[in-house]
Amino acid sequence: MSTLSTTAEQVSAQDQRSVLEPDLSAIARPPQVLNNRGPHWVTDAVCSIVEGKTPLWWYVGITISGTFAAIGGACILYMIVTGVGVWGSNSPCFWAWDITNFIFWVSMAHAGSLISAMLFLTRQKWSISISRSAEAMTVFAIMCAGVYPAIHIGRVWFVWFLFPVPNNYGMWPNFSSPLLWDVFAVTSYLTVSSLFWFAGMIPDLAVLRDRATTKIRKFAYGIVSLGWLGTARQWRHFEMMYVLLAGITSVLVVTVTTIVASDCATSVVPGWHATIFPFYFMVGAVYSGSASVLTLLIPLRLAYPQLKDLITPSHLDKVAKLLLLTGSCVGYVYVFELFTAWYSANPFERGAFWERFTGGYSWYAITCLSINLTIPQLFWFKKVRSCLPVAFVLAILCNVGMWFERFMIVTTSLIRDFIPSSWGNFHATPVDILTATGTVGIFFTLFLLFIRFVPIVNMSELKAALPGSQPHHGTTEGGDH
Amino acid sequence: MSHPLPLSTGHHLPVAGSRHEPLYAVGARFESADAILAAASHLKEEGFSCFESYTPYPVHGLAEAMRLPKSILSFLVLVGGISAVLIALSMELIPTMFLYPLVVDGKPTNLSALPQFLPITVALTLMISAVTAVFGMILLGGMPRLNNPIFAWDLFQRGASRSFFLSVEARDAKFSVASVTELLEGLGAGDITAIHLEASEETPKPDHEV
């Protein structure tokens, strides 16, 4: 663990007035927790969300999201028993809302992993208070993404064909297909992020177990916390595991989007066949994920005022800057794609982009570009970043823009390829739309359950990073390592 | 039942658990990370080996003070990762090269096509390494263990998320209630308590408490 930054924080908190006053105030990091809150306050504030009375808005929220999720589930069932014809997907547009939504959700997941894993590895301690909720967002978004790959194949009962299962037909999947890579990438992404999320939560679940007042809670949290005691041995293995998992997850973030981008990039379809796609998907992923983090955290702070000292304006400001950075990269890729299409002198590539902006689906491309090229740029202004209602609305708009981008990439490339005789059209059906809103419902249902039943801030890591929580240096051997 | 632990009742400490059951450990509470670090160092220097510290968050230097070895988890994950590479490559290459050579887009089905097998190899390696890391942490940390003698100590249950606890187990060769109590008192510990095992369900409870 970083003792360097802890030292800096300790210095900034304690010695600021005495020794280093004029110099340090300019470069001091914003405090991890506002109002000089101590470790006990952190524990009480975070646990009070789980232990307190369920607020009314929670019931209202979960009723709405649960209804949408149930309608989505019914649509999936209807699709399975009837066939994929109930979707608008058709020749030549074999991929439409299914893969659009798959890419949309799996991309959104990435900001969570980036915040919890990459920022942990680079010792960005500020991310501790938001990492748990960002990770939860990751896990739930991958679950929503995971709805589609299985059902979009049409005959769901053959989904096991995707896995290398020895079978009577002597038949094996095609390991050189990016679509199969995708199966493994998404499976491992879901597994690893769920494990990272759960394992990091064990000490905090033990806190809830110790504080539980009813037998049912004690039993339930007792089971999931696996008998955690916080012994020095357990912490030693735990910290090692956390570093390892953060490293694994950081690599996974990059490989998963690369593989998902390969689904498109390795084909010859004009508009897909581009080497910039992995980078394109990666920056788009973190961009939409940062927007989702803002969308979730801003109302969460409002709903639970005690979180305002933990999830500070400085956190939201940093996430907004991440959104600005990745949003600008996305804008760069749009321009670069157009340049490549023109510079390649390939009539099909040029035609695909011309069609994208002038054809029957031009309003998708125009909406996508007008949002993603302009909205993130507003975050250059500190006033926009610090005005939370504005940031909230803009973040939602960014996600809308990203959905349009995914649709633009997937669908408008497919409906116009090389031969005019194979051109076609796509029209979304109500089943398409209700399945998509169903995944939104699943996402919010899971997130509401998360808020209610699990500590939404990583208490143990946060307490360890608070000023004065670690032994003073120089008093004992082994204090700094 | 045979008890390896002494049935020590000749002390005047507050008792957690059942007084009629064997003594498990002497527990103490500390108020700061500094205090528990100093106490752990001191106990180790005195030659104690069966003692344990419980902290609400990782206290830097505590494992070093207790002279705990480096976690072998990283080694386990390396082993898990290497086996994952082998598993993934054989899972892909054996069917492709021998069992079911599937020629799509004219892509070769032999080792010259190795790059196309790497994405799945990477994904599986990361997944199996992560599974090793999490289950390794759980097992190395002595979990899952849903009951523990120290849970008999009510103060520990209530205070584990706030205070720093230390327990010296009765099975330690240097253990004696009097000396450990004196030592812990000298280190500034509070709430020194004798933690007995809890009455097992088969043992009928005594009619009257002492």
What would you say about this model in short?
The complex is a heterodimer of chains A (481) and B (210). Chain A is mostly helical and 481 residues long. Chain A contains 17 helices and no strands.
Strand and helix layout:
The complex is a heterodimer of chains A (481) and B (210).
Chain A: H1 4-15, H2 21-27, H3 39-51, H4 56-82, H5 97-121, H6 128-152, H7 178-211, H8 215-224, H9 232-265, H10 277-303, H11 313-344, H12 347-358, H13 362-378, H14 382-386, H15 388-414, H16 430-453, H17 459-465
Helix pairs in contact in A: 4-16, 5-6, 5-9, 5-10, 5-15, 6-7, 6-10, 6-16, 7-8, 7-9, 9-10, 10-11, 10-15, 11-12, 11-13, 12-13, 13-15
Chain B: E1 15-16, E2 23-30, H1 33-45, E3 51-54, H2 62-65, H3 73-99, H4 118-140, H5 154-159, E4 164-169, H6 177-186, E5 190-196
Parallel strand pairs in B: 1-5
Antiparallel strand pairs in B: 2-4, 2-5, 3-4
Helix pairs in contact in B: 3-4
